[in-house]
Structures are given as structure tokens and as C-alpha cells.
Design goal:
By secondary structure, this protein is an alpha/beta fold. The protein has twelve helices and twelve strands. It has two domains: 184 residues, Isopropylmalate Dehydrogenase, CATH 3.40.718.10; 132 residues, 3-Layer(aba) Sandwich (Isopropylmalate Dehydrogenase), CATH 3.40.718. A twelve-stranded mixed beta sheet has the order 3-4-2-1-5-12-11-6-7-10-8-9, sandwiched between helices.
Length: 324
């Protein structure tokens, strides 16, 4: 039997539910289980003219995917959802889907988790501290996560994830860089089969600090960490200026880039492949991939949302699950 992959449908007011319906029309090489409110999916399908047969999930009965159908484990919304209109009452429903997916993956019920986008703001407004999927799964599994986005041969990981810019410098330490880069190196070997990954580390400051004239984090923290990583046998280079490391002829010499903060690395990869980029959480005892975009509330219910990133996330999850 093909791997069983669980798909969380995300924020009900966003594009997640309709993206789940859209990819159900395609042939898929896995058994796909969608966690969602069945009525929500049926209503969204009817409104968009999508003809998708919803099947009930039974954990003990293998059910390979059939194009035009979607296997659903029903989780009830707290309140009826309107496309584009956030409702705090449904915040616990959203996190409940993630809890269920994580529990199932840890138990071996699911070979991988694929997540549609959630809205961090409404979850926090509902009184549940939530930084993001990466941090959520890390806390539930007791792991040290590394957020990496990939499209084609381009792979960009992050030394820090969802932090205000004012907190980034203090969060980057020698220890954190050693841990993050080691996890990146290990999982590039494990999942991508790279014998000795070539990793570029960005500087934090413009021009990688310009020899200390534009900041000293490179001198105090990043360069010593790189020396320690090299001493341990890793193939790492840096700190490199972030405005030149992504030049194609420079990038060709590396298998992955470690950016120091969220908006240093992710704009590049989203420009390179917004409809095909995938978010992968490294460092977990479970396999998790996701879309590279948000809830797109303005597109919800219009039928104009592109499903390319979710399909790419599912295809990568399937590929990596088969290598496990």
C-alpha cells in the first residue's frame, strides 16, 4: 500500500479547504486523509462547483486515493465559517487538527503531515499562544526544529523563524547556529541523500558586517560558529553577504543556504517559485511539509486560489516518506 499522508485543512475562512478539494481531483500516489469539517468542505465545493466525493476515514481500512474523491476525518467547527471572515470561535478547531495530525504521525498512523495555511493572529486573539506550525510541532514532539523552504534545487533554511526583527540578534548564538546547521546537514543527508552537503551561512548585517563597521555579530558569533562546524567535519562557508549569496553563480556552489532571519531568505525563494515552493520542518521525529503561503482571505471562496504549492508539498511529503 502507498503511504498514508494526513492533510490538515487549516484556517476555515481561508483558502485551505478549497485547496484540499482542488488537489483531490488529481491522481495521487498516496492514501490521503484530510482533517476538516465535512460540512464545510461540502459547502465550499458546492459554492465553487467542485465535484468531489467525500469519503469517511476509517483508520483500519486502507483507502488509496481516487481522483475526484477525498477521504475525510470529520472535525466539527465551533461556528459556521464564512470565506474571508475570521472567527475566534474556530481557533481551537484549527489547533485541534494539528494536535490530531501530530498524535497520529507520532503513533505511526500517518507517514507524513501536510499542512494548509493557518492564521496566527486569530489563534493568538483567541487566547492561545501560537507562533507557527514549526514551533507548534517542535513543542509537541520535544524537538529542535529547523524551518527550510525548497523549490527545485534551491533550499533555504532559517537560523531564526517567527521573531520580531528587534529580537533576532540576541537569538543568534554560537550554540544555536551549531545546533541548527548540524540538523540541516543531517537531514539533507537523510532526506535528500547528499553525502556531504555544502552549506552557505549568511551574515546578519549588510555586507556581512563590513569587518565590524556595520555590526559585529559576524565577528563575535557567526565566524566562530563556522570554525567549530568545520572542525566537526561539516562543509560550511561564510559568513556571506545575503545580497550576493543568492547570485546564481555563487548559489551553484551550495546545496543549501542558512539565512539568519525570516525575511532575509524567504523573499528569494518565494520569488524563485511561489507556486511550487514547499516549507519543510527539519529536526522533527515526524515528517511535515506545508505550503509556502498564508490563508489568502481575500481569495477564499472565489475559486482563484492556486493549489500548486499545496500539491508540491504533498508530492514532496510522498517522496520523502518513501525514502524513510
Amino acid at each position: 500500500m502507498p503511504p498514508r499522508i494526513v492533510l490538515t485543512s487549516g484556517e476555515p475562512a481561508g483558502v485551505g479547504p478549497e485547496l484540499c478539494l482542488a488537489i483531490a481531483a488529481r491522481p495521487l500516489g498516496c492514501e490521503l486523509v484530510c482533517l476538516a469539517d465535512r460540512t464545510l468542505l461540502a459547502e465550499r465545493a458546492a459554492a465553487l462547483g467542485l465535484h468531489v466525493r467525500l469519503r469517511e476515514y476509517r483508520a483500519q481500512a486502507p483507502c488509496p486515493h481516487e481522483p475526484g474523491s477525498l477521504t475525510v476525518e470529520h472535525h466539527a467547527l465551533a461556528a459556521a465559517s464564512v470565506p474571508g471572515r475570521l472567527d475566534m470561535r474556530n481557533a481551537r478547531y484549527v489547533t485541534g487538527l494539528l494536535e490530531r495530525a501530530c498524535t497520529g504521525a507520532l503513533a505511526g498512523e500517518f507517514a507524513a503531515i501536510v499542512t494548509a495555511p493557518v492564521h496566527k493572529g486569530v489563534i493568538n486573539d483567541a487566547g492561545m499562544p501560537f507562533t507557527g506550525h514549526t514551533e507548534f510541532f517542535a513543542e509537541r514532539t520535544g524537538a529542535c526544529p529547523v524551518m527550510m523552504l525548497t523549490t527545485g534545487a534551491l533550499r533555504v533554511a532559517l537560523a531564526t523563524t517567527h521573531l520580531p526583527l528587534a529580537q533576532v540578534s540576541a537569538a543568534i548564538t554560537r550554540e544555536s547556529l551549531l545546533r541548527t546547521t548540524t540538523i540541516l546537514d543531517r537531514d539533507l543527508k537523510r532526506w535528500w541523500g547528499l553525502a556531504r552537503p555544502r552549506i552557505a551561512l549568511c551574515g546578519l548585517n549588510p555586507h556581512a558586517g563590513e569587518s565590524g563597521h556595520l555590526g559585529d555579530e559576524e565577528i563575535r558569533v557567526i565566524t566562530p560558529a563556522i570554525a567549530m562546524l568545520r572542525a566537526s567535519g561539516l562543509d560550511v562557508t561564510g559568513p556571506l553577504p545575503a545580497d550576493t549569496v543568492f547570485v546564481p553563480r555563487v548559489l551553484a556552489g551550495f546545496d543549501a543556504v542558512l539565512a539568519m532571519y525570516h525575511d532575509q531568505g524567504l523573499p528569494v525563494i518565494k520569488h524563485a517559485g511561489f507556486d511550487s515552493a514547499v516549507n519543510v520542518t527539519l529536526g522533527l521525529p515526524i515528517l511535515r511539509t506545508s505550503v509556502d503561503h498564508g490563508t489568502a482571505l481575500e481569495l477564499a471562496g472565489t475559486g482563484r486560489a492556486e493549489s500548486g504549492s499545496l500539491l508540491a508539498a504533498l508530492e514532496l511529503a510522498l517522496t520523502l516518506a518513501q525514502r524513510a
